[in-house]
Every structure is written in C-alpha cells, then in structure tokens.
Amino acid sequence: MMRRMRRSSGRHPAGLAVGQAVAGLLLLAVGVAAVAFIGVRILGTDHIAAPDETQAVAAVTNTTTPEVATADEPRVPPLSAADTPSSHDPHAFVKGMTISCQSWGWEWGTDDMVQSMEDLRALGVNWIAIHPYASIRDDGTVSWRYGRRGQEVPEGEVPTWLQRPIDEAHDLGMKIMIKPHLAYWGSGFSWRGDIRFETQEQWERFFETYGTWVAQLAGICKSADAFVVGTELDATLAGHDAQWREVVAQVRGQYPTGVLTYAANWNTYDTVPFWDVLDVIGIQAYFPLVDMPAGVEVPGLVEHWQARSATVPDIEKYAEPTPEQMAAAWKRIMNDLHTASAKYGKPIVFTELGYNCSILAPYIPWDARMIGMSDGDGQQEEEGAQVNPAERVQRMCMAAALDAIEQHHDVIRGAFLWKWFPGSRPHGDFAMASDAMKNVIKEEWGE
Questions:
Q1: Structural domains in the chain (count)
Q2: Domain harbouring 156, CATH code
Q3: Is residue 431 included in any domain, yes or no?
Q4: 42 pLDDT exceeds 90?
Q5: Which contacts (CB < 8 Å, 24+ apart) does range 66-72 have?
Q6: What is the DSSP string of 36-61?
Q7: Residues 424-442: pLDDT tens digits?
C-alpha cells in the first residue's frame, strides 16, 4: 500500500500557535511555561551504568525511604485547571515514544517514519521524539554527524529528515520533541556521562562548539513542540553552571516559544544546577526496581561493555520480581521525585523509559543483553501460549512503570518510551515494537 506523502506546508491543524503548541504536553504554571514533558545510553543501544551506579542502586532500593506525600500535602505549585493532565488537551499527559535510527537520521524523513507514527498513534501514543546526532572528539570539538562524511548542515538549510517528521507529527495530531544526542563512539569516551576534559582549552572548545551546534539545531526545529538542551552530559555540569546557562540562552534565542528541558540520568537529576531556566525536569528513568542478587555487584562501565555479548554468571540468582516488589520500588522512587519537583517548582517528564527483553531488566534496566530468551529456557504456559521469562519480565516492568506514572500524574507528566524504529522493526534490544510490548502500551495508553 502506498503511504501518504507529505502534504503542502500550510497546515498544522493543531495550530502551532504559541499557546497551543506549548500547552500541548505541558503544564504552564500560572503565566510561566512549566510544561509536560520530557538514561543510560545508546549506541544503537547505548545504555550503560554510571560510574557510581552501585551506590545509586542501593539508594534507590533502600527500604527505609519515607512515604510519598499524601494528597492533602501538595508538593508542587498548583496549576490552573486548564493545564492539568486531566484537562481537555489530549497532549497534556505525555504518552511518548522515541523513534530511533540506525544511521545519522535520514530514516526520519521517509514514508516508513510516517507509517511508524500512524502505528504508534493507533496504540495511544500522542508524542514522539527523535534524537539528531553530533559527533564529539577527545579535544572537545562537537560537529554535525550528518551524511556519509559528517558534513555540516549549511546555515539556513532545513533538512527534510528533520522538518518532515515535525510536519507529519502535527498532521497526525501528535507532538514532537527534539532530543540531541552526542555520538561518542570513535572517541575516548565510554558513554555520554563520561564526557569531560583535561584542559581549560578543551572545555572552552566544547561549550563553544556544542552551543553553536545545539542552537543551530533548535533553530532548524523551531516548529517542534519541545527541545532538550542536553542528554546525559552529567560530567559536564559541576563547575560549569554559567556555561550551561549560556547554552540554554543560545537555544532560547533560536527557539523562543517551545518547551525546554535537559535529560538527566536517573541518579544525577538532583545535581543539575540550571533547572530554574528550563520548563520541566527531564529524567532518563532507568531506575533499578530490585536489589542485585546476594553476592552479585552492579557491573561497572568496562565490565558492562565486556559483558555485552557474554553470558551472565549465576543466572539462577536473578529471580523474577513480584508485582508487590515493583510497586514498592516505584513508591520509593516517586517519593524522591515528588521532593525534587517541589524543590525546583517544576513538573517532571521521563525523557526515556525502557526495559530490555531480559530477566536483568528490573535489576539493571540499562543493560542491553537479552538474557532469558533461549528456546525452552524456563518458558511457561500463559493463557494457552508459550511465554519466555524475559518477555514476561519486560512486560511486568513496563506495566508497573506506566501504572506508577499514571498514579502520580500530578508530578510525573508522562514518558517517552525507548525505543522504536521506522518500519516498526520488532527485534533488537529495548524493542517496543514486539507484539507483547505493543499490547502493554495499548492497554495502558489506548482509548
């Protein structure tokens, strides 16, 4: 069947008028754009643990965390009725999906991309996100990762692979977030959270070239509904508050009417010093849901990469969690998020939320190994069908997360799931296009 081609550019039925575009997801607190919307990386998958992940896991799963505030103890500034997730605006609560790519992003300008957006809309998804890339060198230089040789996008040019997904999303009655990613592969950095420099010259080069690139991208994508000023660049935050505020100002200059956030890793969101100049707190929500098995440590960065294609020792120790365990974990996580939202006076959106098809998913959600999917490996009958334990755990984790978000929608204004590909490619790590995950998404988000 022929997929519909892009119509002439005079439309956007949702209007892209400032008020409507911003109101979409996002929740404007009386006169101020405080919006809805928008861990661990991705190299095609790039999810890995932060250097201090072991301690962070212990903190998240600590059972002594106090209870979540009750309804009569508001933790965030009150919002007008028109801006709440229960309002008539279908985008006020983010039901988002990140559509990834296997290249530098040309796929986002294809008919397959349009088909994917239509398929996602049928599941109840109302927002999408794409993640344009720039390359990062060891000396701090940031440049476009575009085309076969990484050429620059000429000043004033609006590439089809960036503009078409924005236009098509709006034609479908959806909204779109632009979430820049630094492609660290080929550099000496092990993941985005490892990007840091040794000399003042390198730091200056980084902020100058990164600011130039991200501001140009924001200008190209000025009709998008939300924009992320940085993704998981947590090692660049300490001691560089002024430089980051300048980056935000550069982006605001090119993108004056949309919603801005930063995508902080799940265990570092409280270290971001410039939430006050952004509209919403963005979190890459790869929170561990259960403690590691006794005697098993969270893998560090080097061990993680070495183990990506390896089997998992002591696999029998990774018991399938109970629904009660996951609900208790989310209760503790949400308590911390309520506190952060009140502290900064901003709502929160999960800029990424995903679980791999693996029995490791509730233990180390960023791990890309697909463990527990061997034929006949512990498969059990479920409603007359064979279900492998990895798929069952993936479904349980996602359902528990989406239920928790819904229960706390006064603070957590939704999530962008990780990930989908143009053409609905169902295989690969963190795939949301499998039949099992599509069913979970439709059950949670569908009408």
A1: 1
A2: 3.20.20.80
A3: yes
A4: no
A5: 66/335, 67/331, 67/335, 68/331, 68/334, 68/335, 68/338, 68/408, 69/335, 69/338
A6: -------SSS-----TTHHHHHHHHT
A7: 566 678 989 999 999 999 9
